[in-house]
Amino acid sequence: MSRFLYNKIFEANKAWVEKMKKQNPNYFKDLAEEQNPDYLYIGCSDSRVHANEIMGLAPGKVFVHRNIANMVINTDLNIQSVIHYAIEYLQVKYIIVCGHYNCGGVYAAMKAEDMGILNPWLRNIRDVYRVYEDELNNIEDEKERYNRLVELNIYEQCLNVIKTAEVQKSYLQNGFPKVVGWVYDLNKGYIHDLDINFEEELNRTRKIYNLYPSK
């Protein structure tokens, strides 16, 4: 990016501030108040997908964590800290794992290629492929197979959220949060709910991953 284009960012920021203040003189005063979102959104780092925009919600209504291919890895202290904070301090009612079709991370995991530092991260997506290898290999169309892996990866990351002690403890005590899986269609702009049965998956998952036994 040239210095000229970089400086344009600050000019655009000033114009945006003035625009928002004209629309609502208290916009930034309200925005500076303590956040109280009902949703934790775990999404992809892709620059084309912004949580509150696709959800039609104002800033401050969604607590957001993003990484390559919307992964929830149990050794990633970043995502685990976000989940802990969202449940223990923000008391979110929903945890949303949202992936999207045309995901570069998922596509990279489908290729037989050394991706350097990305290898250990992408291996988690390849593990999803391994689990569903028969189903995926039976899909002849490469694009359809790719899209199906996007959906299956979202499902598996939802299960990874359900495996956490914070989710199990809070839901058993409070009845929230619920974990849902979405896929965003870049070509059409719509969000599709994958209709994951949270309570069924929680009960099934806890048979092995029960970290907070009910009294």
Notes on the structure:
Strands 2-1-3-4-5 form a five-stranded mixed sheet. It contains ten helices and five strands, in the order ααβαβαβαααααββα. It is an alpha/beta fold. Helix content is 52%, strand content 13%. The termini are far apart. The longest helix has 21 residues, at 3-23.
Distance between the termini: 58 Å
State Rg. 19 Å
- The gross shape turns out to be globular
Structural class estimated from helices and strands: alpha/beta
- Average pLDDT works out at 93
What fraction of residues sit in β-strands? 5-15%
Summarize the structure.
This protein is an alpha/beta fold and 215 residues long. The protein has ten helices and five strands, in the order ααβαβαβαααααββα. The protein has a five-stranded mixed sheet with strand order 2-1-3-4-5.
Provide the fold topology.
Elements: H1 3-23, H2 27-31, E1 39-44, H3 51-55, E2 62-67, H4 77-88, E3 94-100, H5 104-110, H6 119-131, H7 133-137, H8 142-162, H9 165-174, E4 178-184, E5 191-193, H10 198-209
Parallel strand pairs: 1-2, 1-3, 3-4
Antiparallel strand pairs: 4-5
Helix pairs in contact: 5-6
For the structure shown, list the relevant keywords.
215 residues; globular; 13% strand
